[in-house]
Automatic annotation (TrEMBL):
Source species: Rhizoctonia solani
Protein origin, superkingdom: Eukaryota
Protein name: Ubiquitin-like domain-containing protein
Pfam families associated with the record: ubiquitin
Residue ranges, compositional bias (Polar residues): 1-10
InterPro entries assigned to the protein according to its UniProt record, in alphabetical order: Ubiquitin-like_dom, Ubiquitin-like_domsf
Ubiquitin-like domain mapped to chain residues: 44-69
Location of region: Disordered: 1-20
Organismal lineage: Eukaryota, Fungi, Dikarya, Basidiomycota, Agaricomycotina
Length: 73
């Protein structure tokens, strides 16, 4: 896999991988992709930090193999 394309995995209990997402991908786009895969999260968390929809993966330094937690309320 290209190191310029992060792969993210939602948790807990979900194993949907996002392949070929670019560092310029917005969190909102990640959330949309996850919902299409049946993963509905109220909040996405990376390294203990809530991700804002308008920001990019690059903004949060999310790299290939990173884990993003998907939390439902």
């Amino acid at each position: 896999m290209d190191s310029n394309h992060p792969q993210t995995t939602p948790e807990p209990g979900h194993d949907e991988d996002l392949h070929d997402v670019l560092p310029s991908t917005k969190v909102k786009e990640v959330r949309q992709h996850q919902s299409k895969a049946g993963v509905y999260a109220d909040v996405l968390i990376y390294k203990g930090r809530e991700l804002q929809d308008a920001m990019t993966l690059d903004y949060y330094n999310i790299e290939e193999g990173s884990v993003i937690e998907a939390e439902e309320f």
